[in-house]
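Task 17 of the worksheet. Students: predict the tertiary structure of the chain below and write it out as structure tokens. Keep your answer in the requested format; marks are given for formatting as well as content.
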Amino acid sequence: MTLVVILRFFIFADFPICEEFNIQYQPCVNHYDSLYYIFWSDYRNPISIFATRLLEDGTVLDTGGVFLFRSYANFGCRAAFDGENFLVVLRDSC
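Model answer:
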């Protein structure tokens, strides 16, 4: 399955962010200083959190995603940015 982030408001196009094998889901998108930062849950063994950077023209900088954290992130993640650091949180159970 391909993770597709829809940024129609910004660039009017659909395109793949990660085309790795298995399931990528529940993306979270942040924008800062001309880059989009995208975080998602990924079913590569084991379930983990991955991220990538995206230019405003749609160019994916980290095509396979960057591994961030290994956990059962079944309920996705959320990210916040304070101008210097990202904080990525996840929920691993009900």
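Marker's comment: DSSP finds one helix and eight strands in the chain. The chain has one domain: 22-90.
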